[in-house]
């Protein structure tokens, strides 16, 4: 009864998608936030569809947080950072770290859209021996800077990336996206102090403030407010935005003007874009039925 | 083959863990549950309904979880600190050492969904290192229940022991293997089957598979003794020495890392006493992605795998 499976092929650049990504992303990066917004919103919608079908095929996944973080991630990877899908380890690349690593489906869908690997491989999400683990693994997926999933790891690593750039006199920048529940981990506040102390103006930390965590609302579990004042008191420049407004997100991702690291508190909705999932804690980790997938895709196609 | 693992009904022991804890909490007001945004995954929703003030949720903060539990113990409570096993043991390792074990706090650390129960979520979420990590800390009892009855016994035992304790609460579904009259004592293995050629020593998920392996071996005229080594710490040293003296080989099986786990503990005792061949089954390195059932197969953590290791140790291949 032993199942003999050969490991799937490693993930390699999707040349066609990567070639399409480069000029389009360059244009979106150079465009004003207002000009880029509609196009970034379109990309986000297609990523949301991929998230739904990826989770459907895996039969597992953290769909609520994936849909919450999509606009923040798409604006980072398509509209702000200089990613190099054909040379994922290029030393001059900008760094993107997803600290809330349970939202791997959103990250994989976005990386595939950029051409880091073929979109068709998304169907292998969490399959036996798949490189597409339930949580991002650096050694398996091009474009993944560091392993994440245990909460409270990505931010210190991202701080090190930014500190490294500063020490080397390099110009590339780092964006790290955190869950709001994740902010309850002490390691994050240690990193927040380090980044402020070293004046890492090349670092942007984004909090996906959807106000829900695994079991309940953040404010009913262990309250975070006043979150903006906390970041400010740790020495950060704070920008509070609507985390589904691509224009606002792109503006908030603009480099620091104060010489301090920038914290973006992005007010979001868990499950965004699928009405029956929005702001509902049970969709933290739940798989839609086939009928729910149909309804979700219908909403996302509108 | 009469398969214990494949034909008998199987159980997710988190329900037994939570029921037993509530049962004890009804008569002992010192018992509190502490968790990390894991009320649902620790199966503590009902506990919270019954004892709203005695379920403390510190949020996603495992170091805080263990430190706060140490403080609650200081204040006269008996905290059951519950979180996913990889984060509870790994993240708070130093708190477990300094605040619980070295301080000798009666705190019960409850590692939920251990081993490769979170298979598809990948190695960051596998708890294969926990037995090695916890064994490295002096003065900590380590219990690996194999079924619902043992999970309940573990909770009862740990509530009364007065000792720092780690319980690995199974999520991977296991059949009932414990006889009704089986003892539950620190440092006492349960002999589930007599045998004279080889001794199979297993914990947790692997106990029913070791029993199945013994059936397979019997068909080849190999008589296998099966020990359920529920307490990895304190280990039943006498049972291991007896195995080495009375049978010709020892096989260990655990859903965990080979370095530093049950196998290492057993091998040390065998090597220091009457050496016989030892074969250790477990996980050699970071596992790939896949369901727990798939990964157990992948690493040969099956009845066939255990039987094969036994034949090899006996030179009967
Ligand atoms: C160290 C650690 N503890 C617990 C968990 C289990 N866990 C996974 S996701 C999650 C909730 C995360 O909430 P949040 O950061 O707000 O993410 P989002 O709501 O955006 O999905 C928890 C507790 C974990 N992955 N890591």
Automatic annotation (TrEMBL), chain A:
<protein>
    <submittedName>
        <fullName>Transketolase</fullName>
    </submittedName>
</protein>
<keyword id="KW-0786">Thiamine pyrophosphate</keyword>
<dbReference type="InterPro" id="IPR005474">
    <property type="entry name" value="Transketolase_N"/>
</dbReference>
<dbReference type="Pfam" id="PF00456">
    <property type="entry name" value="Transketolase_N"/>
</dbReference>
<dbReference type="GO" id="GO:0000287">
    <property type="term" value="F:magnesium ion binding"/>
</dbReference>
<dbReference type="InterPro" id="IPR029061">
    <property type="entry name" value="THDP-binding"/>
</dbReference>
<feature type="domain" description="Transketolase N-terminal">
    <location>
        <begin position="46"/>
        <end position="293"/>
    </location>
</feature>
<comment type="similarity">
    <text>Belongs to the transketolase family.</text>
</comment>
TrEMBL record, chain B:
<dbReference type="GO" id="GO:0000287">
    <property type="term" value="F:magnesium ion binding"/>
</dbReference>
<dbReference type="InterPro" id="IPR009014">
    <property type="entry name" value="Transketo_C/PFOR_II"/>
</dbReference>
<dbReference type="Pfam" id="PF02779">
    <property type="entry name" value="Transket_pyr"/>
</dbReference>
<feature type="domain" description="Transketolase-like pyrimidine-binding">
    <location>
        <begin position="11"/>
        <end position="176"/>
    </location>
</feature>
<dbReference type="InterPro" id="IPR051157">
    <property type="entry name" value="PDH/Transketolase"/>
</dbReference>
<comment type="similarity">
    <text>Belongs to the transketolase family.</text>
</comment>
<dbReference type="Pfam" id="PF02780">
    <property type="entry name" value="Transketolase_C"/>
</dbReference>
<dbReference type="InterPro" id="IPR033248">
    <property type="entry name" value="Transketolase_C"/>
</dbReference>
<dbReference type="InterPro" id="IPR029061">
    <property type="entry name" value="THDP-binding"/>
</dbReference>
<protein>
    <submittedName>
        <fullName>Transketolase family protein</fullName>
    </submittedName>
</protein>
<keyword id="KW-0786">Thiamine pyrophosphate</keyword>
<dbReference type="InterPro" id="IPR005475">
    <property type="entry name" value="Transketolase-like_Pyr-bd"/>
</dbReference>
């Amino acid at each position: 009864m032993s199942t003999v499976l050969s490991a799937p092929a490693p993930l390699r650049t999707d040349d066609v998608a990567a070639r399409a990504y480069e000029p389009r992303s360059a244009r979106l990066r150079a465009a004003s936030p207002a000009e880029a917004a509609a196009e970034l919103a379109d990309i986000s919608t297609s990523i949301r569809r991929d998230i739904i079908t990826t989770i459907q095929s895996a039969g597992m996944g953290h769909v609520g947080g994936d849909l919450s973080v999509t606009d923040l991630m798409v604006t980072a990877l398509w509209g702000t950072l200089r990613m190099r899908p054909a040379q994922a380890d290029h030393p001059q690349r900008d760094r993107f770290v997803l600290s809330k690593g349970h939202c791997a489906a959103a990250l994989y869908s976005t990386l595939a859209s950029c051409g880091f690997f073929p979109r068709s491989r998304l169907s292998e999400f969490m399959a036996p021996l798949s490189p597409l683990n339930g949580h991002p693994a650096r050694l398996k997926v091009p474009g993944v800077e560091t392993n994440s999933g245990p909460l409270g790891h990505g931010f210190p690593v991202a701080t090190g990336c930014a500190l490294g750039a500063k020490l080397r006199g390099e110009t590339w920048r780092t964006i790290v996206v955190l869950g709001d529940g994740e902010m309850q981990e002490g390691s994050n506040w240690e990193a927040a102090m380090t980044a402020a102390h070293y004046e890492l103006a090349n670092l942007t930390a984004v909090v996906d403030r959807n106000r829900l965590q695994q079991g309940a609302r953040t404010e009913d579990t262990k309250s975070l407010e006043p979150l903006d004042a906390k970041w400010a008191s740790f020495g950060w420049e704070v920008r509070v935005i609507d985390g589904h407004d691509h224009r606002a997100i792109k503006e908030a991702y603009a480099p620091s003007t104060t010489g301090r690291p920038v914290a973006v508190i992005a007010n979001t909705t868990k499950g965004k874009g699928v009405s029956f999932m929005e702001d509902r804690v049970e969709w933290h980790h739940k798989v839609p039925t086939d009928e729910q997938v149909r309804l979700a895709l219908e909403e996302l196609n509108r | 083959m009469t398969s214990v693992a494949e034909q008998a009904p199987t159980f997710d022991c988190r329900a037994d863990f939570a029921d037993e804890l509530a049962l004890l909490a009804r008569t002992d007001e010192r018992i509190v549950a502490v968790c990390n945004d894991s009320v649902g995954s620790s199966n503590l929703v009902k506990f919270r309904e019954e004892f709203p003030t005695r379920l403390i949720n510190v949020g996603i903060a495992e170091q805080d979880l263990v430190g706060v539990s140490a403080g609650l113990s200081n204040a006269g409570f008996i905290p059951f600190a519950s979180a996913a096993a990889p984060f509870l043991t790994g993240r708070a390792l130093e708190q477990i050492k300094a605040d619980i074990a070295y301080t000798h706090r009666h705190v019960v650390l409850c590692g939920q969904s251990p081993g490769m129960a979170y298979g598809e979520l990948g190695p960051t979420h596998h708890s294969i290192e926990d037995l090695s990590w916890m064994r490295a800390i002096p003065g900590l009892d380590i219990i690996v229940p194999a079924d619902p009855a043992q999970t309940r016994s573990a909770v009862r035992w740990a509530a009364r022991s007065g000792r720092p304790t780690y319980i690995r609460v199974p999520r991977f579904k296991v059949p009932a293997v414990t006889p009704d009259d089986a003892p539950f004592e620190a440092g006492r293995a349960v002999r589930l089957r007599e045998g004279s050629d080889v001794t199979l020593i297993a914990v947790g998920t692997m106990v029913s598979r070791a029993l199945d392996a013994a059936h397979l071996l019997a068909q080849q005229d190999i008589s296998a003794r099966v020990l359920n080594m529920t307490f990895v710490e304190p280990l039943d040293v006498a049972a291991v020495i007896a195995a080495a003296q009375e049978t010709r080989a020892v096989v260990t099986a655990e859903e965990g890392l080979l370095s530093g786990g049950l196998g290492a503990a057993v091998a040390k005792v065998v090597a220091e006493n009457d050496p016989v061949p030892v074969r250790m089954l477990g996980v050699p390195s970071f596992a790939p992605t896949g369901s727990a059932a798939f990964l157990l197969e992948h690493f040969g953590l099956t009845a066939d795998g255990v039987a094969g290791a036994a034949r090899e140790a006996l030179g009967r291949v």
